Amino acid sequence: MSAPSGRVTVVEVGxxxxxxxxxxxxxxxxxxxxxxxxxxxxxxxxxxxxxVSPKAIPQLADGDEVFxxxxxxxxVRYPVLVPNERGMDRAEAAGVREIAVxxxxxxxxxxxxxxxxxxxxxxxxxxxxxxxKKGGMRVRGYVSCAFGCPYEGAVRPxxxxxxxxxxxxxxxxxxxxxxxxxxxxxTQVPDVVGRAxxxxxxxxxxxxxxxxxxxxxxxxxxxxxxAGVRIFDASAGGLGGCPYAPGASGNVATEDLxxxxxxxxxxxxxxxxxxxxxxxALASVTGRRPVSRVxxxxxxxxxxxx
Length: 306
Ligand code: HMG
Ligand code: MG
Known about the structure:
By secondary structure, the protein is of the alpha/beta class. The chain has helices at residues 14-18, 28-40, 63-69, 85-94, 107-114, 118-134, 157-170, 188-198, 217-226, 254-264, 272-286, 293-300; strands spanning 6-7, 9-12, 45-46, 49-50, 80-81, 98-104, 138-144, 174-179, 206-210, 231-234, 266-267. 42% of the residues lie in helices and 14% in strands. The radius of gyration is 18 Å and the shape is globular. It starts with 5 loop residues before the first strand and ends in a 6-residue tail after the last helix. It binds 3-hydroxy-3-methylglutaryl-coenzyme A (HMG) and magnesium ion. Magnesium ion binds next to loops.
């Protein structure tokens, strides 16, 4: 069988999903340097921060300043998480060109995360998406708990498909299916992806956002590729989690995802050593080692095979 070939887009979410879950607040300068190092490594989408309530996520309360200070590379997108019109005011003021709205396929999770039912969250971001479109912004939509919920357990793929289709119909250019607590297994992937496609979201507009809590993320990526997905979210050094999802740990590490993709013959345009350097620089600030097998292997072999 010949190796697959083609382009895969890696959406780097470490500066948002990763840093929202750090025990301490990373200084603004280090956040800016992290985003810039990731873009320098060749990532073309770097989720920069979140304009959510600072009471909900104090770690990203400085998002406005971080976003303004990033030296933006031409050709790189810097989406920002926006939960409501207040967040949109901040996004417009900061000159954001792409936003990400977020809801869930689980009512209980959504209530804990954004203090709203799924229905209420759609009502909340309808005016946000309208403003984004009017301003020529691109919009991403997240569906949390697409593979399981920390409160409700199993989540029906039909429910994931329905929310995904609603997001696309509401104006989201891309829909990212989140395994928020990393419970998914490969056999779920074709079902979850296939039903979202059947519900009307073209596969080229679907992304997978896989947390690696139980070590299944890369296996799920491989299944995602077989199902036609070409956009994967990841966080440098495996940072991340959601404070409203007990037990959630980081996203699949960008380094591990790149190793898999490049080894399988997919092109990403991203330099693996460049991402390792970004993770290491951040780790020198947080004092926490990157949770990436590839970074560990890179260190063990002094970088020879990265
Ligand atoms: P609420 O308390 O229901 O709303 O929160 P509120 O409108 O009453 O606001 C409460 C306070 O926050 C007020 O301040 C507002 O002004 C302020 P006070 O009057 O009490 O001083 N506020 C804001 N401040 C700045 N920016 C804003 C903003 N909005 C309100 N945008 C709300 C509702 C949605 C705001 C809140 O629950 C919230 O911000 N939640 C975000 C939680 C979050 O960020 N979770 C993590 C991201 S999602 C995730 O990680 C999953 C994902 O990675 C995919 C996956 O893995 O599945 C995307
Ligand atoms: Mg996440």
